[in-house]
Amino acid sequence: MTSATPVSAPAETTAPPAPERHVGAAPAPAGRGSARRRELGACGVLMTPFFVLMVTVFLIPVATAVRLSFFSDDQPGLGFGPERTVFAGLRNYTAVVTDPTFLGGLGIVALYCLIYIPLMVAGALALALLLDSGVVRLRGTAQLALFLPHAVPGIIAALIWLYLYTPGISPVIEVLGKADITVDFLGVHTVLPSIVNIALWSNLGYNMVVFYAALQAVPREVIEASVVDGAGPVRTALQVKAPLVRSSIVMVAMFTLIFALQLFTEPMLLSQSTPMINSRFSPSMYIYDAAFTRNNYGLAAAASVVLLLCTVALSYGVTRWTNRAAAAEEGAR
Amino acid sequence: MSTSTASRTASPLRPRLLGRSVVNLVVGVSVLYTLLPVLWLVLASTKNRDALFSSNVLSLTDFSFVRNLTDLFAMDGGLYGRWYGNSLLYAVLGAALGALVSIACGYAFDKYRFAHKEKLFGLVLAAVMVPQTVLALPLYLMASAAGLVNTFWAVFIPVLFNPFGVYLGRIFSQGYVPDEVLEAARMDGAGELAAYFWVALRMLGPGLVTVFLFQLTAIWNNFFLPMVMLSDQDLYPVSLGLYSWNSSASVSPEYYPVVIMGSLLAVVPLILAFALLQRFWRSGLTAGAVK
Questions:
Q1: How many Cβ pairs closer than 8 A exist between chain A and B?
Q2: How far is the alpha carbon of A180 from chain B, nearest alpha carbon, in Å?
Q3: B9, B169, B192, B286: most buried, per Cβ within 10 A?
Q4: Following DSSP, what letter does each residue of B252-285 receive, concatenated?
Q5: What CATH number does the domain located at B73-290 have?
Q6: pLDDT at B280
Q7: Distance, in angstroms, between B263 CA and closest chain A CA?
Q8: Where a domain ends, among A68, A84, A116?
Q9: Which segments does the entry list as coiled coil (chain A) (predicted)?
Q10: Is the overall model pTM greater than 0.90, yes or no?
């Protein structure tokens, strides 16, 4: 900071002595204050567009959602009187957390996370470790092919798989049929795994690339040392490389969790073709249904605040848990 | 590679070869898993409706790729062309503007000191966590109060906000813009903003491209917000348009071939963007992943 003074020094010598010189406690070199002011000015200019956006499309909406969740629309006089908004206290929250369709949606997303996140993290990490092992042929091509679904928009991934799940169109069902296997991919017990498959297909390659990039940064000496110590390639991968990319694993798990909790696009599209998915299948669909089909803003807002709290609590839990695991690991060494 | 030679001498040859083929098999199967659905989309786009339902995607007897293409752009008075244009506008313009805004903010977080900086940064990071569904209803009510519901702006303005881009911007700024370079620019008499726009922004190029690509993908994928905000089909992006056509397809099957062709075309821009900008986002991903 002090080395910035030469720039402002000429300006300061021509200017009259600043009256607010006494502000700095230490005998600051001339011009320091104005350089600092100019820096803060530039900082403000660079940050303003983002924070204007943040206030308008993030902070105000979050505050509005919280406020809405405490109000409800009341129509006195058997629904013929003028509609007015009244303070409802926690009534919307009680309605949400006692609504079996909302709880069912939470349960479905919980199950979805339990299947999807471990599969995703383990699958992407395994593929990254295999590609990093150096025995894979055409590594670059394989990586690009695995990454390809990331360039397919979510709704289109859901469309492709919906068609692959639809009897009559799907070559998968036909091939299975020839082997005398009949699968209803959109049945009661199969619809959730079918959704997991869509999400896995879309994101596996992307997360693999993230892990692979992190593995590239592992110092080669560490790996050589483990080989010299007699560890085979599998042990090297699982016990040396994987722990070294732990921060990436946490990051991927966290983002996967945050997006999994918002489950919306895939079930929304599949619901066009299967009665197994109703309009309140996941919490996000519940919120959409409450807000834009039933026009119950208070209920929708309360449900979205509950979803937000679940997200925050789970993210916090993941961070705490991984930090503790890291500390325990450090302690064991 | 000393790794492979060391382990080759350590372990007998046969398990080693076995391991090698198992590894290649697993990767090969995974590649098939990711590629085949896309391949199916390509093949299915060449089929007319009857051939599509006969399941025989591999036969090339009813090659109607061109027919499907003309059908697609003729359907419902050329709606698809409009959707495509809308998506390009939302995504390219939104991602470019959003990336510039986020990178500038991330840079300022890295290079300047001010009170409560880390708390503010924490708030930005926390914004990543908030589900879109939480924001959608309030945004809809705000847009409706401002008379913006069912306009371009109702979708365009919210997608500019990209807190993860600020996080990446800060990391790239740490990695790519050495403080000495900025000092040199100041020595030369450049103002703070001039130093950013003429010196730092160029060094941040790969970071800018990475954030741009992230946001391009996100906006091109965007489905929930347009669904909430737009009722005029002329303003739909491709994602929402195909969704609405697919819901019509169960009643009128003539929509199936156009939905498939429309899906294929909708994949092209992102593949092109990723292929052309590969050099940049690869380095960008590394920076984002290691920290």
A1: 292
A2: 17
A3: B169
A4: -TTHHHHHHHHHHHHHHHHHHHHHHTHHHHHHHH
A5: 1.10.3720.10
A6: 75
A7: 6
A8: A68
A9: none
A10: no
> What contacts A80, CB < 8 A, 6 or more positions away?
none
In a domain, A31, yes or no: yes
- Enumerate the domain spans of chain B: 2-68, 73-290
Q: Of A64, A160, A297, which is closest to B37 when you measure between CB atoms?
A: A160
**Does A306 lie in the same domain as A200?**
yes
Q: Are residues A179 and A229 in the same domain?
A: yes
- Tell me the chain B residues in contact with residue A223 when contact means C-beta distances shorter than 8 Å: 3
Please tell me the distance from the alpha carbon of residue A146 to that of residue A206, in angstroms, as a whole number: 8
What gap in Å lies between CA B235 and CA B9, rounded to an integer? 65
Per DSSP, helices labelled H in B112-237 are: 117-129, 132-145, 152-159, 163-176, 179-187, 192-194, 201-203, 205-221, 224-229
The model's pLDDT over A138-162, given as tens digits with 9 standing for 90+, comes to 888 888 889 899 989 999 999 999 9
A60 and A153 share a domain?
no
pLDDT tens digits, one per residue of A54-97: 999 999 999 999 999 998 876 555 555 566 778 878 889 999 99
Same domain, A125 and A269: yes
Residues A134 and A39 in one domain: no
Assigned domain for A81 exists: no
Residues of chain B contacting A213 with CB distance shorter than 8 Å? 282, 285-286, 289-290
Domain annotation covers residue A6: yes
CA distances to A233, A244, B62, B197 from A134, rounded to whole Å, are 10, 18, 44, 42
